[in-house]
What does this fold into?
Amino acid sequence: MAFKTGAAVFFIIALVFLSVFPLSVQGEDDTGEDVFVAPRLSENAIPWDERHPELLDADMLYARSAILIEATTGETIFAKNADEIMYPASTTKILTAYIALQMGDLTYDEVTISQNAIDLVPPTYTRIPVSEGETVALRDLISATLVRSGNEGANALGEYFGGSIEGFAGLMNESAQMLGCSGSTHFTNPSGVHDENHYTTVRDMAIIARAAMQNPDFAEIVQKNTYEMPASNKHPARQLVGQTSILDPQNDYYYRDCTGIKTGFTNRAGYCFVGAAERNGIKLISVVFYSSRAGRWTDTKKLFEYGYTQIQSITPEALYAEDPRVIEIAGFDLDDPQHGNLTLGIRATDETRDMKIIGRKASIDSLRENFSKISAVTWTREFRAPISVGDTMGVLTFFSENKGTATYDLVATRSIAARENAPPTLEQIEAYTLADENPFPRFSTDLLVPIVGFFLLLFFLLRTIIRRRRRRIRKPRLITPPKKRPYRYASNDYSSQKKK
It folds into this structure.
């Protein structure tokens, strides 16, 4: 009974000791020179609520330093001590692999492992392993270095492309500067073995990871947690297993949208992880330095979930669909249920072109409000029935600041029958005329109306003119002169003249 009690006490003491001073795990690097103290959340920290990932505070992360960026633009979405100088541990291998992919040829290059590359790895650090004199194809060596975090593989790559470890460190520092890293970044080796002069920041590491993920071969390699390494002149084929729990569907820390990238650990660097994720076309990159063993996974998940509440992705088709064009069709059948109103759908003229717009929610909302200002419509046919579903009515041109222009067909979403006895459209008349072999137009009663109208108008006009002219040339009537009347004298005057 006493033995059982003593064993129980010993077991409890061991658990407490391990919780404070955890042992190194296979796949991680531990110098044994210092003691790693796992970070804890602040007692005053507000608990993170997965139902409201948009509410993220720096105190909710275990990591001493963290950052989240949008991979397409490099925009910083979240930061915690992003410019503090930190030790990167094995996340250093991201830059090593990036340089190797830039300088090497995956089809032809083969690397022979030197004894020096093996001897430079401290006893407690992770190995692939490979042997002296073993010849490994470049793709296999890069994959083993990233997936398994093989330190001798990183050293071999450094010797192959830099001539020496020191020479390759110079290439690393030059590459970091060219990528835009700050003066707070300096590398001394290709593996991440601890060195006081080997340091960077989460902001600079995010810059490096963003550049590396733009290489398709790198992106393909880092999304795997296992790698089937083919046989070489020293070893048979074997499966290498990594320690990236967030990529393992069987692990409790698995994150469905995660696409890589690299773990790291030393007692001085703490547990590190550089991650990448993609959802609905939105690509994010996170970096957490000096987190806890499990905290690097939970921190990464919190960052990604927060990022997807801040960044949106939308296409011009989706923007248009939120407020589609509606046109009025003439000559529609009187039984049409929508009285000739036709909603137009949208169809890309080049379906292979990626026109996804990624940005902050406020920027996307601005595009919604100003869609008519960043697009133009050219109509290609008359708005007259009959209309068949799928008919192209016009072309919409969308103008993007970053991706140029793209064109889309505006198509009829339904058919509209023409009204019976409706006059023919111009298109119908043109088609009818072109199909007629007779150079003269065919006789139709419809032609009588304008012809008869013309001659009637001409008849009345000529008659009016003729009448007016007749009135003008008619002779004037003769005036009858007055009849002569005899002159009569007054009787008194006549009698007086007679007496004289």
Q: What stands out?
A: The two ends are 204 Å apart (CA to CA). The CA atoms of residues 34 and 267 lie 6 Å apart. The longest helix spans residues 445-473. The chain is about 35% helix and 20% strand.
